[in-house]
């Protein structure tokens, strides 16, 4: 089937590094854990850009430089989530121009969704606070029984609930995990360079498009 732009009906977004900049709060919450447990691994925000993308537990594991036992990791994850739920919006907000772009897409009748490796409850709370309730038609986060990205299960779930085919959607993300997720799902990948990873990382997976500003999102529809 030939791809044509006017067929597009859906936008599937990654969350961290794509819709919103969560980096400072993620770093601060990891450092809270380190101080609480009497250890400290100094990492910059650029380091944390490489630690995110595969879920909170994997980020903690990387931030602690793989020194934690499985029991410690599970405990730290629980403590992180409790603290993060109270502080996840201290410094976090939408990327400049993102609210306007989502409004344009909605005016065009495009269905909006999110597929993230962030815990689903945190993702929903964050999105509704920053963008408002009802902006996104479907939000799929980390939940029991659903494999994390780059497994395509979350994208498949979104497309089914939205009533969209693979040809009718674009998947926006800032990392190789996102590009691989789109590839695995058979959906056109759009890499965004304003997030946590480099142009080179995105380009290596040959996405359909790479864009450099949120203002370019609506131009694809």
Description:
It is a single chain. The protein is of the alpha/beta class. The mean pLDDT is 95. Strand 6 (169-173), helix 8 (176-185) and strand 7 (188-192) form a beta-alpha-beta unit. Strands 5-4-1-6-7-8 form a six-stranded parallel β-sheet, sandwiched between helices. It has a two-stranded antiparallel ribbon with strand order 2-3. The protein has helices spanning 23-36, 45-51, 56-63, 70-87, 98-107, 120-131, 153-162, 176-185, 199-203; strands at 10-13, 20-21, 93-94, 111-119, 138-142, 169-173, 188-192, 209-211. Helix 1 (23-36) crosses helix 4 (70-87) and helix 3 packs across helix 4. The longest helix has 18 residues, at 70-87. 43% of the residues lie in helices and 16% in strands. It contains nine helices and eight strands.
Summarize the model shown.
The protein has 221 residues and is an alpha/beta fold. It is 43% helix and 16% strand. The strands form 2 sheets. A 6-stranded parallel beta sheet has the order 5-4-1-6-7-8, with helices on both faces.
Task: List key phrases describing it.
43% helix; 8 strands; single chain; alpha/beta; two-stranded antiparallel ribbon; 221 residues
Ordered list of secondary-structure elements with their pairings:
Elements: E1 10-13, E2 20-21, H1 23-36, H2 45-51, H3 56-63, H4 70-87, E3 93-94, H5 98-107, E4 111-119, H6 120-131, E5 138-142, H7 153-162, E6 169-173, H8 176-185, E7 188-192, H9 199-203, E8 209-211
Parallel strand pairs: 1-4, 1-6, 4-5, 6-7, 7-8
Antiparallel strand pairs: 2-3
């Amino acid at each position: 089937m030939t791809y044509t732009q006017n067929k597009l009906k859906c936008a599937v977004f990654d969350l961290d590094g794509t819709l919103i900049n969560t980096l400072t709060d993620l770093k601060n919450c990891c450092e809270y854990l380190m101080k609480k447990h009497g250890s400290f691994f100094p990492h910059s925000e650029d380091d944390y850009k490489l630690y995110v993308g595969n879920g909170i537990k994997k980020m903690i594991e990387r931030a602690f430089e793989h020194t934690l036992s499985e029991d410690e990791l599970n405990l730290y994850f629980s403590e992180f989530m409790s603290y993060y739920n109270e502080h996840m919006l201290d410094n976090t907000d939408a990327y400049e121009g993102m609210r306007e772009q989502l409004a344009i897409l909605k005016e065009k009748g495009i269905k909006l969704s999110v597929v993230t490796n962030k815990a689903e409850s945190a993702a929903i709370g964050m999105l509704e606070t920053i963008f408002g309730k009802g902006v996104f038609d479907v939000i799929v986060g980390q939940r029991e029984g659903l494999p994390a990205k780059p497994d395509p299960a979350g994208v498949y779930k979104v497309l089914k609930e939205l009533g969209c085919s693979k040809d009718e959607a674009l998947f926006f993300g800032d990392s190789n995990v996102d590009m691989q997720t789109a590839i695995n799902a058979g959906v056109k990948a759009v890499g965004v360079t304003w997030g946590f990873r480099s142009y080179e990382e995105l380009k290596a997976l040959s996405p359909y498009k790479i864009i450099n500003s949120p203002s370019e999102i609506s131009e694809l529809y």
